[in-house]
Each structure stands twice: as C-alpha cells, then as structure tokens.
Amino acid sequence: MIYLLIIIAFILTIWAQFRVKSTFNRYAQVPNENGLSGYEAARHMLDSNGLQDIPIEPVPGTLSDHYDPIHRVVRLSEPVYYERSISAVSVACHEVGHAIQHKVHYPMLVLRHRIFPLVNFASGIAPFLLLAGFMFNYFNLIGIGIIFFSASVAFQLITLPVEFNASNRARQVMVEQGYIRNEEERGVAKVLNAAALTYVAAALVSLLELIRLIGIFNNRD
C-alpha cells in the first residue's frame, strides 16, 4: 500500500511541476491592467514596508525567483523582472513576501533558517548511510540514516507554511495597494496556488518515503 501511495505522490509531483509552468505561461500572456512590471511591483511593495535597502536583481532562467536572506536581496527571473503580466507581479510580490517575513521574524521562517545548516549536512549524508546500512544489513546505520533523512522531511514540512504565508501577504498587499484589480485576483490566486502545490507534492513524497523506510527498518529489526 505504501508503495502505491509513493507512486501516486510521485505522479502528483510531476503534475504539479507541469501545472506551475503551464499556469505561469498562461498568465504571462495576460497583462495586468495597471501596467506594472514585476520589478516595479516588487520595488513598491518593498518600499511601502520599510525595506528600501533591499535591492532587486534580475537573474537568468525561468521560475528561478527567490529571496536571499543572507545577502538580503530579491532576485527575479528575467521574465518576471521585466514583464508586465499577472504572472510577473504575482511571483515578484510573493518573493517580497519572504523579505517581509524576514523583517518581522516570522517564526517558521526563522526556524527554517536556523535548521538549514543541519538539514544541508543531513540530506547530503543520509543516502550514503541508508545505502551502506542496507548493503551490510547494519541496523544502527540504517537508523541513523533515517534520523538524518527525517531532518530533510521536517525542513520540507516547515517550508509549507512559509510559502503559503508569503503568498497570502502578497495577495493582500496587491489588492490593498492597487497593484491589481479585483477581477484579476483570481488569476493571481491560480499562479500562486500552482506554485505552492509543488512544495506540497514534494513534501508528501518525502514523508511517504520516510514512512516506508521506517517500516522496512522495523520489519528488519
């Protein structure tokens, strides 16, 4: 049964990735009525929240947008930075939502930042521990590998409220400050919800894999 769930979750991940790209491309063809570019919307949202010192940089690629909390910079992919579409302003404002989270010390973002070094190490070594443990039938090594892998799963679960909160902040500001018209809010919601679904699917796959590993470990033990 667990294997069937993992397959379903994996298919969901592929579908989520397809959906986010297709939804972004669809609304990238729909200009926002106020004619704001992604950069202009992001700049205005940052400035109105007292974050005038945070720069915005264009980066190559598609959907490569992110907020860098270490260097405190919002980086927008070129289609988002320059274009004046529903997709562009939605993604740009979402990334600014992360900058605002950083400013107000949003608890889940703070927790994610604090555990990142540990998770980065654990996620890198966990596959080797698990592989060696199963190859040599060494239960203790398998158990340690599962613990390390669970840190990565926890990180993905913590990421979910961070992403949803950033999207909610973006939508609220976009409507209140007039970046979009009320009739455009549906398109914004579709773009942001499609992006959020990719995080949900990835977290689900990892969680089911963790459950599978624990089940195998318990049966062997």
UniProtKB/TrEMBL annotation:
Signal peptide residues on this chain, from the entry's feature table: none
InterPro entries: Zn_peptidase_2 (IPR007395)
Ranges annotated as spanning the membrane: 115-134, 141-162, 191-211
A Pfam family: Zn_peptidase_2
Keyword presence, Transmembrane helix: yes
Keyword set, alphabetical order: Membrane, Transmembrane, Transmembrane helix
The protein's name: Zinc metallopeptidase
Organism: Paenibacillus spiritus
